[in-house]
Amino acid sequence: MKRADLVESADLVERARALYADDPIATAQLDAHAARLRDPLRLAVAGMVKAGKSTLLNALLGEHIAPTDAGECTRTITWYRYARSPRITIHLLDGAEVRMPVRRDRGRLVLDLGSRSAEEVAWIDVRWPAEYLRSTVLIDTPGIASLTAHASATSRSFLVPDDTSSQADAIIYLLRHVHSSDLNFLEAFRDTAAGASQTVNALAVLSRADEIGSGRIDSLLSAARIADRYRRDGELRSLALDVLPVAGLLAQGARTLRESEFAAFRAIADLERDARERMLVSVDRFVRGGDELKVGVADRRALLARFGMFGVRLGAMLVRGGALTAPDLSERMVQQSGILRLQTFVGTQFRARAAVLKGRAVLHGLEALLRERPVVGGGELAGDVERRILRAHELRELGLLAAMRTSAPSLSAADALQAQRLIGGSGTDPLIRLDLGDAVSADAVRDRVADLLSHWRSLAASPLATRATAEQCGVVVRSIEGAASELAADARVRPAADVVTSGRPAQSRRQHAQQEAEREQADLRQ
After folding, report:
1. Collapsing DSSP states into helix, strand and coil, what is residue 301?
2. What's the chain's average pLDDT?
3. Fewer C-beta within 10 Å: the chain N or C terminus?
4. DSSP notation for 394-416
5. Is 520 exposed, middle or buried (0-12, 13-18, 19+ CB in 10 A)?
6. What is the 3 state secondary structure string of 117-173?
7. What is the pLDDT of residue 239?
8. Quick check: helix, strand or coil at residue 45?
9. What does the alpha-carbon distance between residue 363 and residue 367 come to, in Å, rounded to a whole number?
10. DSSP assignment letter at 347
11. Across residues 250-279, what is the average pLDDT?
């Protein structure tokens, strides 16, 4: 779904609005659908209590905006959107709106409901001039299986409502260990967000990865091995596109690193080896021992609160390894935290598909509205909506990707893996789909496309292929043709003579994916 498809979806919404002009309930739903088409990607962050949701959100924003304490605000749905100037609005359950003062305390945004309780609040709208929010709306949710029934019910009714589609286009689900509650929630989100298409649009994150192994310096390596095991797990694989380990506290601290904190890390690194190792054995020794360290007890506690024991050990090691300035240390910590890999995944898998995810939710929403609230003239519109869904190739790709993850494939293992890559399972960039390098010639693209088309067309035409297999192969063939068409005008593809066109430097896949996402978001805003 590109710009023309979004326009067509918006036209269907407007046609429905004309039919339901005298129905305020339907009109409110249609207003929500229209707003969804205009918004950037809506990405929710969810998980069990104390999974590190707000910490991860702050790491993505690069500022300490989301509250991480156990106050009333952490028990409400909070939307973070882009705006040129900060603005905070509380939306109450009775429909009233209350503006909150924008106040910061030691760099942290203060969200205070005052005399109101979380039970009185529908959601909080935070408008903030963070660059990340230009292309993504972040939604912080209360913990699943919270100690309070209201907080848990709030998250479930928002993310997995009974009678409507989820308001989130995609979700980052944080888990520390895979519990039945996690699997049940992800399954409900898949069923609610995807509808009949059963699309998988969730990313599982092994949060607080730095705490695995008691904060040892190799904690993230241990977390990566656990994430790989979860990634191969049959149940979780059918519910999440990937499992990534992320040290959220480290990423949040690194992106908001202060000069005074860098000075503390440098003081630790400058200690004699034996003294430094004794001090970093445990939290208690770090706080209370080591008189030779000229950092006060209060500052040591603050350092632990901001970075954790793993972050303190890593920070000292990175300074000794050559991080000479606060920005340099910040960059190295961010790289170690795993947050960059998460952001790349969001960009290539979710943001690049924002139009598809939004269009699918809106079209299924229109189907549900026309079915549940019949209206004169609705039959013709319902037919147009159904035809729009059937001819949207991107929706068929997502449906096939989900089917291949949730049921036994009818293809060989090698063909199944290749099919998932070709239909966008590893990213929507055409070079990634075709498994080609960044610097590739037109001849190489043509040969690769010819080989792939020959293989998949022969599979579809095989007398041993079932009807379902032939249909799956047809979707793959269409994806190959689409990737080839995109690359025909791609600046990264060298002309057949292998001469790089002057003035057009080659782009990496990440740069190309980012540009595609930015163009997609421009189309959405327009």
Report:
1. helix
2. 84
3. C
4. HHHHHHHHHHHHHS--SS-HHHH
5. buried
6. CHHHEEEEEEEECCHHHHCEEEEECCCECCCCHHHHHHHHHHHCCCCCCCCCCEEEE
7. 80
8. strand
9. 6
10. I
11. 93
- The predicted structure's pLDDT at residue 374: 93
Closest to 362 in 3D by CA, of 1, 13, 91, 5: 13
* Residue 356 one-letter amino acid: V
Would you state the pLDDT for residue 145?
65
The terminus-to-terminus CA distance of the chain in angstroms comes to 15
| Alpha helices, H only, 321-412 | 326-337, 339-345, 354-372, 378-390, 393-406
User: How many other CB atoms are found less than 10 A from the CB of residue 95?
Assistant: 7
> Are 393 and 478 contacting, i.e. CB atoms less than 8 angstroms apart?
yes
Give the pLDDT confidence of 491-508 residue by residue, as tens digits. 787 776 544 443 444 445
Burial of residue 380 (number of CB atoms within 10 Å: 0-12, 13-18, 19+)? exposed
Whether 61 and 138 have beta carbons less than 8 Å apart is answered as yes
Q: Is the dihedral of CA 427, 429, 434, 440 positive or negative?
A: negative
Structure tokens at 58: 């702050």
Calpha distance 432→415 (Å, rounded)? 16
CB-CB neighbours of 180 under 10 Å: 8
**CB under 8 Å to 340, separation ≥6 — which residues?**
334
pLDDT tens for residues 121-167?
A: 889 999 999 999 999 999 998 887 655 666 677 777 787 776 677 88
